[in-house]
Specification:
With 166 residues, this protein is of the alpha/beta class. The protein contains five helices and six strands. A six-stranded parallel beta sheet has the order 1-2-3-4-5-6, covered by helices on one side. β3, α3 and β4 form a beta-alpha-beta unit. It is globular and about 35 Å long. The protein starts with a strand and ends in an 11-residue tail after the last strand. The C terminus is likely disordered.
Length: 166
């Protein structure tokens, strides 16, 4: 196992191009890019690298970056491609769970290697209704992703009483 940890190095999208060259030319299996400034443009580069035959990544940590649903969609497309070897994907502090889950569900269902998916919401509690919270929680207890054995969903809600009732 080869690990490349670049967490908290203030990397930006242009830096990701160099990282992608490294993960497609070296036998890197674990890549940590958490706590950087990677946006959707960087995610597109990563997704392209993930589909390379030379990419050996099994663990990708993109926690606490600047990915929106577009960036997650690029990663999801790579996962769905069948060429991606990821077994663990971490996306804490990027996109909100209801969006991420809809984007990733199809991709994960068509990928046989992914075993751990970790997502988190950093949105304010007002965005989620009680029904949406129940639906989100049901993902972890009745996983819709048959290959995933660990689904971590963290929801940073500090005032649950502020969630609108229907």
């Amino acid at each position: 196992m080869s690990v490349l940890s670049l967490s908290g190095k203030q990397l930006k999208d242009d830096d990701v191009v160099k990282v992608c060259h490294t993960i497609t030319s070296e036998p890197i299996t674990h890549l940590s890019l958490s706590w950087n400034y990677i946006s959707d443009k960087g995610a597109r580069h990563i997704a392209t690298a993930l589909t390379s035959e030379r990419c050996k990544l099994t663990h990708l940590d993109l926690n606490a970056n600047m990915l929106s649903v577009s960036g997650v969609s690029y990663i999801a497309t790579a996962i769905e491609s069948g060429q991606c070897k990821l077994t663990e994907l971490y996306l804490y502090a990027n996109a909100v769970p209801r969006v991420v889950s809809s984007v990733l569900t199809h991709a994960v269902n068509n990928n046989r290697s992914l075993r751990t998916v970790a997502i988190e919401s950093v949105e304010s509690p007002e965005w989620m209704t009680c029904d949406e919270l129940k639906s989100l929680l049901s993902l972890s207890s009745h996983c819709r992703w048959p290959n995933v054995v660990q689904l971590n969903i963290y929801c940073l809600i500090d005032r649950i009483s502020s969630i609108p009732q229907k």
